[in-house]
Amino acid sequence: MKNDRTALVTGANKGIGLHIARLLAAEGLTVLVGSRDPGRGERAAAEIGGRARPLTLDVTDPRSVARAAESVGHLDVLVNNAGISPALGPPTETSVEELRLTYETNVFGVLAVTNAFLPALRRSPRPRIVNVSSGTASLHWSTHPNPQFPPGSARSAAYRSSKAALNALTVFYGLTLADEGFKVNALAPGRRATDLIGTPMPDAGDPAEAAEGAVRLALLPDDGPTGAFFSWDGSAVPW
Ligand code: NDP
Protein backbone atom coordinates (compact mmCIF):
# COMPACT_ATOMS: atom_id res chain seq x y z
CA MET A 1 0.00 0.00 0.00
CA LYS A 2 2.66 2.44 1.15
CA ASN A 3 4.78 1.72 -1.94
CA ASP A 4 2.01 2.93 -4.28
CA ARG A 5 2.03 6.36 -2.68
CA THR A 6 3.21 9.55 -4.35
CA ALA A 7 4.54 12.66 -2.61
CA LEU A 8 5.36 16.14 -3.88
CA VAL A 9 7.90 18.23 -2.00
CA THR A 10 8.14 21.87 -3.13
CA GLY A 11 11.60 23.47 -3.11
CA ALA A 12 13.23 20.05 -2.91
CA ASN A 13 16.36 20.78 -4.94
CA LYS A 14 18.34 21.61 -1.77
CA GLY A 15 18.18 22.20 1.98
CA ILE A 16 15.51 20.66 4.19
CA GLY A 17 13.29 19.88 1.17
CA LEU A 18 15.95 17.68 -0.41
CA HIS A 19 16.29 15.76 2.85
CA ILE A 20 12.50 15.33 3.09
CA ALA A 21 12.38 14.05 -0.50
CA ARG A 22 15.23 11.65 0.20
CA LEU A 23 13.55 10.24 3.33
CA LEU A 24 10.15 9.86 1.65
CA ALA A 25 11.85 7.99 -1.21
CA ALA A 26 13.56 5.76 1.35
CA GLU A 27 10.08 5.01 2.77
CA GLY A 28 9.17 3.67 -0.66
CA LEU A 29 7.10 6.59 -1.96
CA THR A 30 7.38 7.92 -5.48
CA VAL A 31 8.69 11.43 -4.90
CA LEU A 32 8.09 14.40 -7.17
CA VAL A 33 11.07 16.66 -6.55
CA GLY A 34 9.72 20.21 -6.90
CA SER A 35 12.19 22.79 -8.17
CA ARG A 36 11.72 26.11 -9.92
CA ASP A 37 14.87 25.37 -11.93
CA PRO A 38 14.44 22.28 -14.16
CA GLY A 39 18.16 21.44 -14.24
CA ARG A 40 18.55 21.53 -10.47
CA GLY A 41 15.36 19.49 -10.07
CA GLU A 42 16.70 16.84 -12.44
CA ARG A 43 20.01 16.66 -10.62
CA ALA A 44 18.31 16.36 -7.22
CA ALA A 45 15.95 13.62 -8.46
CA ALA A 46 18.90 11.73 -9.97
CA GLU A 47 20.79 12.04 -6.70
CA ILE A 48 17.81 10.66 -4.74
CA GLY A 49 17.41 7.84 -7.26
CA GLY A 50 14.73 5.16 -7.15
CA ARG A 51 11.38 6.46 -8.36
CA ALA A 52 12.14 10.15 -7.68
CA ARG A 53 11.13 12.42 -10.57
CA PRO A 54 11.71 16.14 -11.04
CA LEU A 55 8.70 18.45 -11.23
CA THR A 56 9.30 22.02 -12.37
CA LEU A 57 7.32 24.24 -10.03
CA ASP A 58 7.71 27.89 -9.09
CA VAL A 59 5.15 28.36 -6.34
CA THR A 60 4.81 32.10 -7.10
CA ASP A 61 4.05 31.61 -10.81
CA PRO A 62 0.38 30.71 -11.48
CA ARG A 63 1.21 29.20 -14.91
CA SER A 64 3.95 27.04 -13.44
CA VAL A 65 1.62 25.88 -10.65
CA ALA A 66 -1.19 25.08 -13.13
CA ARG A 67 1.15 23.21 -15.50
CA ALA A 68 2.62 21.15 -12.66
CA ALA A 69 -0.80 20.30 -11.21
CA GLU A 70 -2.14 19.25 -14.64
CA SER A 71 0.71 16.76 -14.96
CA VAL A 72 -0.09 14.99 -11.67
CA GLY A 73 -3.18 12.78 -11.60
CA HIS A 74 -2.85 11.33 -8.13
CA LEU A 75 -1.11 12.60 -5.01
CA ASP A 76 -0.99 11.25 -1.46
CA VAL A 77 1.38 13.68 0.24
CA LEU A 78 2.01 17.37 -0.37
CA VAL A 79 4.90 18.95 1.52
CA ASN A 80 4.77 22.74 1.18
CA ASN A 81 8.44 23.30 1.93
CA ALA A 82 9.53 26.10 -0.44
CA GLY A 83 10.21 29.24 1.56
CA ILE A 84 12.25 32.41 1.62
CA SER A 85 13.48 34.87 4.23
CA PRO A 86 14.75 37.90 2.33
CA ALA A 87 14.27 40.57 5.05
CA LEU A 88 15.73 40.25 8.53
CA GLY A 89 14.59 43.44 10.24
CA PRO A 90 11.87 44.19 12.80
CA PRO A 91 8.57 45.59 11.41
CA THR A 92 9.85 49.15 11.82
CA GLU A 93 12.61 48.37 9.30
CA THR A 94 10.53 46.28 6.89
CA SER A 95 9.10 47.68 3.67
CA VAL A 96 5.77 46.73 2.14
CA GLU A 97 7.71 45.33 -0.82
CA GLU A 98 9.74 43.03 1.46
CA LEU A 99 6.60 41.89 3.24
CA ARG A 100 4.82 41.25 -0.07
CA LEU A 101 7.81 39.38 -1.53
CA THR A 102 8.00 37.12 1.51
CA TYR A 103 4.25 36.44 1.55
CA GLU A 104 4.26 35.67 -2.21
CA THR A 105 6.24 32.50 -1.57
CA ASN A 106 5.51 31.57 2.04
CA VAL A 107 1.75 32.26 2.09
CA PHE A 108 0.25 32.90 -1.36
CA GLY A 109 2.45 30.18 -2.90
CA VAL A 110 1.28 27.60 -0.39
CA LEU A 111 -2.39 28.45 -0.95
CA ALA A 112 -1.96 28.36 -4.75
CA VAL A 113 -0.11 25.03 -4.74
CA THR A 114 -2.44 23.40 -2.20
CA ASN A 115 -5.60 24.40 -4.06
CA ALA A 116 -4.14 23.40 -7.44
CA PHE A 117 -3.19 19.93 -6.20
CA LEU A 118 -6.41 19.33 -4.23
CA PRO A 119 -8.07 17.34 -7.04
CA ALA A 120 -5.06 14.97 -7.13
CA LEU A 121 -4.97 14.74 -3.32
CA ARG A 122 -8.69 13.98 -3.21
CA ARG A 123 -7.96 10.79 -5.20
CA SER A 124 -5.81 9.54 -2.32
CA PRO A 125 -7.32 7.27 0.33
CA ARG A 126 -5.09 8.97 2.91
CA PRO A 127 -4.23 12.55 1.88
CA ARG A 128 -1.60 14.37 3.95
CA ILE A 129 -0.38 17.97 3.76
CA VAL A 130 2.68 19.17 5.65
CA ASN A 131 3.31 22.91 5.78
CA VAL A 132 6.90 23.67 6.66
CA SER A 133 6.54 26.58 9.07
CA SER A 134 8.94 27.87 11.73
CA GLY A 135 9.14 27.93 15.51
CA THR A 136 9.92 31.64 15.15
CA ALA A 137 6.30 32.07 13.96
CA SER A 138 4.99 30.99 17.34
CA LEU A 139 3.51 34.12 18.89
CA HIS A 140 3.61 32.39 22.28
CA TRP A 141 7.31 31.54 21.99
CA SER A 142 8.02 35.09 20.80
CA THR A 143 6.89 36.42 24.16
CA HIS A 144 7.58 33.54 26.60
CA PRO A 145 10.60 31.42 27.57
CA ASN A 146 10.86 28.54 25.11
CA PRO A 147 13.23 25.75 24.06
CA GLN A 148 14.13 27.30 20.69
CA PHE A 149 15.28 30.91 20.96
CA PRO A 150 15.37 33.88 23.36
CA PRO A 151 11.94 35.59 23.42
CA GLY A 152 11.55 39.33 23.04
CA SER A 153 13.11 39.83 19.62
CA ALA A 154 11.00 41.04 16.70
CA ARG A 155 13.63 40.55 14.00
CA SER A 156 12.70 38.80 10.73
CA ALA A 157 9.18 40.20 11.13
CA ALA A 158 8.26 39.61 7.48
CA TYR A 159 9.33 35.97 7.57
CA ARG A 160 7.86 35.20 10.98
CA SER A 161 4.51 36.86 10.26
CA SER A 162 4.35 35.00 6.93
CA LYS A 163 4.78 31.70 8.76
CA ALA A 164 2.17 32.77 11.35
CA ALA A 165 -0.22 33.33 8.44
CA LEU A 166 0.76 29.90 7.11
CA ASN A 167 -0.05 28.45 10.52
CA ALA A 168 -3.51 30.05 10.38
CA LEU A 169 -4.07 28.54 6.92
CA THR A 170 -3.00 25.17 8.31
CA VAL A 171 -5.76 25.36 10.92
CA PHE A 172 -8.34 26.43 8.34
CA TYR A 173 -7.35 23.76 5.80
CA GLY A 174 -7.44 21.22 8.62
CA LEU A 175 -11.00 22.24 9.52
CA THR A 176 -12.17 22.42 5.90
CA LEU A 177 -10.79 19.05 4.82
CA ALA A 178 -11.19 17.01 8.01
CA ASP A 179 -14.36 15.25 6.80
CA GLU A 180 -12.50 14.08 3.68
CA GLY A 181 -9.82 12.30 5.72
CA PHE A 182 -7.08 14.88 5.16
CA LYS A 183 -4.42 15.50 7.81
CA VAL A 184 -3.00 19.01 7.46
CA ASN A 185 -0.28 20.01 9.89
CA ALA A 186 2.48 22.59 10.31
CA LEU A 187 6.08 21.71 11.13
CA ALA A 188 8.70 23.70 13.01
CA PRO A 189 11.91 22.16 11.64
CA GLY A 190 14.24 23.89 14.11
CA ARG A 191 17.29 25.96 13.22
CA ARG A 192 19.12 24.24 10.34
CA ALA A 193 22.27 24.95 8.41
CA THR A 194 20.88 25.82 4.96
CA ASP A 195 21.03 28.71 2.47
CA LEU A 196 17.80 30.24 3.85
CA ILE A 197 19.32 33.11 5.80
CA GLY A 198 22.52 33.43 3.82
CA THR A 199 24.70 33.90 6.90
CA PRO A 200 26.18 30.97 8.86
CA MET A 201 24.21 29.96 11.97
CA PRO A 202 26.74 28.43 14.37
CA ASP A 203 24.08 26.71 16.51
CA ALA A 204 22.18 25.25 13.54
CA GLY A 205 21.52 21.51 13.44
CA ASP A 206 21.49 18.90 10.70
CA PRO A 207 18.66 19.42 8.16
CA ALA A 208 18.26 15.63 7.91
CA GLU A 209 16.94 15.60 11.48
CA ALA A 210 14.24 18.16 10.56
CA ALA A 211 13.19 15.98 7.64
CA GLU A 212 12.29 13.15 10.00
CA GLY A 213 9.63 15.39 11.56
CA ALA A 214 8.15 16.14 8.14
CA VAL A 215 8.04 12.46 7.21
CA ARG A 216 6.26 11.61 10.46
CA LEU A 217 3.50 14.12 9.57
CA ALA A 218 3.44 12.92 5.94
CA LEU A 219 2.74 9.34 7.01
CA LEU A 220 0.25 10.01 9.84
CA PRO A 221 -2.26 7.25 10.53
CA ASP A 222 -6.00 7.82 10.12
CA ASP A 223 -6.41 8.66 13.81
CA GLY A 224 -3.57 11.20 13.68
CA PRO A 225 -3.96 14.92 14.39
CA THR A 226 -4.95 17.62 11.92
CA GLY A 227 -4.72 21.41 12.01
CA ALA A 228 -1.87 21.25 14.53
CA PHE A 229 1.70 22.56 14.89
CA PHE A 230 4.57 20.22 15.72
CA SER A 231 8.27 20.54 16.28
CA TRP A 232 10.61 18.27 14.28
CA ASP A 233 10.87 15.97 17.34
CA GLY A 234 7.10 15.42 17.47
CA SER A 235 6.36 17.72 20.42
CA ALA A 236 3.51 20.24 20.11
CA VAL A 237 4.39 23.90 19.43
CA PRO A 238 2.09 26.59 20.86
CA TRP A 239 0.60 28.96 18.27
P1 NDP B 1 16.84 26.69 1.48
O1 NDP B 1 17.05 28.11 1.08
O2 NDP B 1 18.02 25.78 1.54
O3 NDP B 1 15.74 26.00 0.55
C1 NDP B 1 14.57 26.68 0.17
C2 NDP B 1 13.99 25.95 -0.99
O4 NDP B 1 12.81 26.66 -1.40
C3 NDP B 1 14.92 25.94 -2.22
O5 NDP B 1 14.79 24.73 -2.90
C4 NDP B 1 14.38 27.09 -3.04
O6 NDP B 1 14.65 26.99 -4.44
C5 NDP B 1 12.89 26.89 -2.79
N1 NDP B 1 12.12 28.03 -3.23
C6 NDP B 1 12.21 29.32 -2.86
N2 NDP B 1 11.33 30.05 -3.55
C7 NDP B 1 10.67 29.21 -4.37
C8 NDP B 1 9.64 29.36 -5.33
N3 NDP B 1 9.11 30.56 -5.61
N4 NDP B 1 9.17 28.26 -5.97
C9 NDP B 1 9.70 27.06 -5.72
N5 NDP B 1 10.70 26.84 -4.85
C10 NDP B 1 11.16 27.91 -4.19
O7 NDP B 1 16.13 26.79 2.90
P2 NDP B 1 15.62 25.67 3.93
O8 NDP B 1 15.85 24.31 3.40
O9 NDP B 1 16.15 26.04 5.25
O10 NDP B 1 14.05 26.00 3.94
C11 NDP B 1 13.05 25.04 3.73
C12 NDP B 1 11.84 25.43 4.55
O11 NDP B 1 12.16 25.33 5.94
C13 NDP B 1 11.38 26.87 4.32
O12 NDP B 1 9.97 26.92 4.26
C14 NDP B 1 11.88 27.59 5.56
O13 NDP B 1 11.13 28.73 5.86
C15 NDP B 1 11.74 26.50 6.60
N6 NDP B 1 12.55 26.72 7.82
C16 NDP B 1 13.91 26.65 7.78
C17 NDP B 1 14.66 26.85 8.93
C18 NDP B 1 16.16 26.81 8.95
O14 NDP B 1 16.75 27.05 10.01
N7 NDP B 1 16.81 26.49 7.85
C19 NDP B 1 14.00 27.10 10.23
C20 NDP B 1 12.57 27.17 10.15
C21 NDP B 1 11.89 26.95 8.99
P3 NDP B 1 15.93 27.71 -5.12
O15 NDP B 1 17.10 26.79 -4.89
O16 NDP B 1 15.54 27.81 -6.54
O17 NDP B 1 16.09 29.03 -4.44
TrEMBL record:
Pfam families: adh_short
Organism: Streptomyces doudnae
Family to which this protein belongs: Belongs to the short-chain dehydrogenases/reductases (SDR) family.
Keyword Thylakoid on entry: no
CDD domains listed in its UniProt record: carb_red_PTCR-like_SDR_c
Keywords assigned by UniProt, alphabetized: NADP, Oxidoreductase
Signal peptide positions on this chain: none
Highest taxon of source: Bacteria
Keyword Oxidoreductase among record annotations: yes
Protein's UniProt name: SDR family oxidoreductase
Domain Ketoreductase: 5-210
